[in-house]
């Protein structure tokens, strides 16, 4: 896996930390937008009934 190569290669720990933070932020962003979409979807459903 590419990700494992990145984290096992002897690059600066700062770069590793940066990559980790970026991955976490992307994950959080995706989770929040999915939660938002679910909320709006349920609101639309309730409005229809």
Q: What can you see in these coordinates?
A:
The structure is a single chain. With 49 residues, the chain is mainly α. The protein has one domain. 88% of the residues lie in helices and 0% in strands. Keywords: Membrane, Transmembrane, Transmembrane helix.
Please give a handful of descriptors for the protein shown.
49 residues; mainly alpha; 88% helix; transmembrane; transmembrane helix; membrane
Count of helical segments? 2
The biggest beta sheet reads: none
Structural class: mainly alpha
The string of secondary-structure elements, in order, is HH
- What is the share of helical residues? over 70%
What is the total domain count? 1
Number of strands: 0
Share of β-strand residues = under 5%
Brief synopsis:
The protein has 49 residues and is mostly helical. Helix content is 88%, strand content 0%. The mean pLDDT is 77.
Write the layout of secondary structure elements.
Layout: H1 2-8, H2 13-48
């Amino acid at each position: 896996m590419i990700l494992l190569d990145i984290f096992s290669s002897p690059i600066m720990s700062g770069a590793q930390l940066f990559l980790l933070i970026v991955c976490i932020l992307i994950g959080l962003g995706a989770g929040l937008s999915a939660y938002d979409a679910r909320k709006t979807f349920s609101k639309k459903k309730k409005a229809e009934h």
